[in-house]
Amino acid sequence: MSFDFDQPIDRSGTWSARWERYSGRDVIPLWVADTDFRAPPAVLKAFSERVAHGVFGYTEVPQALRAAIVERMRDLYRWHIEPGWIVFLPGVVPGLHLAARHLVAADGHVLVPTPIYHHFKRAVQLAPREHSDVPLVLSSGRWVLDEERLAQAVRRDTKLLFLCNPHNPGGTIFTRTELERLASLAERHDLRICSDEIHADILLEPGRPHVPIASLSAEISRRTVTLMSPNKSFNFPGAGCAFAIIEDAAMRRAFSSDLHATVHDASVFGYLGAIAAYREGGPWLHAQLAYLRANRDLVEQAVARMPGLAMVQVEATYLAWIDASALGVADPHALFLEHGVAMSPGAQFGAPEFVRLNFGTQRAHLTEALRRLAGALEARG
Ligand SMILES: Cc1ncc(COP(=O)(O)O)c(C=O)c1O
Q: Does 258 share its domain with 312?
């Protein structure tokens, strides 16, 4: 079966967060991380069948979904988990906030690698918990954790290490060796780990697998909360379904204490989408990755030709983290917006001299957006 990711899709009037913000303006919106692609046919079919049934009452977690996740972890990562370790959530974001509130006591301290997806920081700020930012470093063309700085940032009251793997916005797939070193740091200092692996399926480098940090050993599994979701990979975040995998029963209970109260269940469409995607979405995902890889290459080649901009290869995610510091402008996001491209401002992730470009869109949009970026730079002379 072939899938047409070039097919133009008009999202105006559908309450798309990304498109509505600039509606009525000649702006190509490449900011928030969803894609402009229709979800896989199997997901659409599952949704339509339930719509035809017509009743959308309170819904139990389907056992079939627990089974599909157990199978997926075993098949993709040789990671053996129990169905009872899975805690369902309406999204990964509430998982980050639950981790900050319930895995660290009020007087505890958290390590946050930066730049990072903004909800990690919001989670520690709102909990609130003390935290230290630990800057990623550029090493051989990859954004990686600086283990020495990480170790230096550990305090007596440090209880939790936040991890984003693959990394948003850096685009890094952390290697097994890198993760083993992190795991050993966590063991040495008796830290819990909350690992957001929402981008685990969006791998753009063949031969570069994703490794869930909890799959490294029984010891690491017991101290880790792994957050995953089909939302990004199969593009239905508006339906919403995510899950945490937590082996340790006490940690699972603590993490789950807000569920069905301040944190709502996932929606019936989230469950339906997840089962369909995990059981039948493989060929679609594979085709999407090929399309995204070609988009990634297009962005890299275009950026390489733009004086003042630089980026490293995006190993995973559909987000390019573009360094605009050499332009010497205070707000590169504003500069490009003036020329009709809305990216995410780097400031959102802790690096104002960067912009983040979402290339999960039809190639025609992307090509026009890249032309506008080049035009913005030419106009500066
Ligand atoms: C690293 C990361 N975590 C979480 C989310 C959002 O997750 P959800 O929509 O499932 O709450 C995103 C979305 O961009 C993300 O990049």
A: no
Q: pLDDT tens across 136-182, in order?
A: 999 999 999 999 999 999 999 999 999 999 999 999 999 999 999 99
Residue nearest to atom 13 of ligand 1 (CA): 33
Cα of 290 to ligand 1 centre, how many Å? 22
Strand 224-228 vs strand 192-196: parallel, antiparallel, or unpaired? parallel
Task: Give residue-wise pLDDT tens across range 245-274.
Answer: 999 999 999 999 999 999 999 999 999 999
Q: What's the rounded Cα separation, in Å, for the pair 133 and 68? A: 36
Using DSSP's 3-state secondary structure scheme, residue 168 falls into coil
124 with 71, same domain? yes
**What average pLDDT score do residues 362-381 get?**
96
Is the CB of 242 within 6 Å of ligand 1?
Answer: yes
Examine the pLDDT at 306 and tell me if it is beyond 90: yes
Whether 48 is covered by a domain: the verdict is no
Check pLDDT > 80 for residue 381: no
How far is it, in rounded angstroms, from Cα 114 to Cα 191?
A: 18
pLDDT digits (tens, 9 = 90+) for 62-83: 999 999 999 999 999 999 999 9
Distance 53 CA to ligand 1 centre (A): 31
Asked if residue 91 has its Cβ within 6 Å of ligand 1, the reply is yes
Range of the domain at 33: 17-40+282-380
Q: How far apart are CA 18 and CA 31, in angstroms?
A: 7
